[in-house]
Write a structure and sequence with these properties.
Catalyzes the Claisen rearrangement of chorismate to prephenate and the decarboxylation/dehydration of prephenate to phenylpyruvate. The chain is α/β, with parallel strands linked by helices and about 350 residues long. Helix content is about 40%, strand content about 25%. The strands form three sheets. Strands 1, 2, 3, 4, 5 and 11 form a six-stranded mixed beta sheet that branches. Strands 8-7-9-6-10 form a five-stranded mixed beta sheet. It has a four-stranded antiparallel beta sheet with strand order 13-14-12-15, with helices on both faces. Bound molecules: prephenic acid.
Length: about 350
Amino acid sequence: MKRLDELRKNIDAIDDEILHLLNKRAEYVIEVGKIKQKSNRPLYVPSREKAIYDRLVKKNPGPFPPNALRSVFREIISASLSLEEVQKISYLGPEGTFTHLAGIKHFGLSSKMISARSIPEVFEDVEKKRADYGVIPIENSLEGVVNHTLDMFMDSDLNICGEIFIEVNHNLMNKSGVFEDIKRIYSHPHAIAQCRNWLNNNVPNIQIFEVESTAKAAEMASKDSSAAAIGSEMAEIVYSLKVVHRGIEDFANNFTRFLIIGDVKPEKTGNDKTSLVFSVTHEAGSLYSALKAFADSDINMTKIESRPSKLKTWEYVFYVDIDGHISDPMIKKAIDSFTGNVSFFKILGSYPKGEK
Ligand SMILES: O=C(O)C(=O)C[C@]1(C(=O)O)C=C[C@@H](O)C=C1
């Protein structure tokens, strides 16, 4: 026992040191905040945050786990930023959605999360300055793209200033945590589809109802002891549910990608992505000529989606993601030759790539 006491004493001494250093760090951050406010610069600096994480993860000798290091510094930076100003983050709600989880994963618990009822409402919250940033889903690795989000970018002047990846794990949850209590199950159609095999094999006789979000399903289960919901860990916490079965999704590697929208234009980090939208004329080879500009500059295209333009029947806009930052000379060059081949063109943002 003497050894145990001794070890705990050492831990206490280190905690005191960490506490002292956290406050010292906070003092510097307050100074940085004053300089940024004076020179009218954005307080949230995604490129700097990424540089901090990357440097520390690279430097970490262990045994402290790298992912936990990221989470610890996420909260240190979130709390530090709140000393400059609490950041208001609008997200596609209600509370407990995967978008809520994504917002907290990125901005930390010291930000103020504002639940919006729809994707257009998230855009409006940021446009009307009710929120500093917005978080919206853009695509799921199994279900594909969220068209509504893509369409919103046509009319909005907001930038994409970051992306967040969340691994989607679905849990079957109810009030008691007892399987036998479940008489019906609620969830979003995507979540139900992603757990179809598990549901067929394990609950073939229980009726399943579709509702508008996994969070709504969790809320309903929290008010009805014979109901269960399929949803995120966040919903479990927010609605005080108990997990009956964890991880009931049929496929591993189920990720959803979320975008952060706002006014800032993040600086280059060296590991960035650029999103843009364009349309081409109805001529043979016009799409090919546009995209050739990227191929000629050796630029990797990570995504292309087409959507109806909505202005003219059978005209389309193309959403493209490429590796790199708009300030990279090769990208600048490609975009200059690219614009000669398109009838409409808009850069949606250059931003640090999200951690998967
Ligand atoms: O370096 C800054 O600009 C800071 O405000 C400090 C800090 C940090 O805690 O390290 C806080 C928030 C920013 O988004 C980036 C970094």
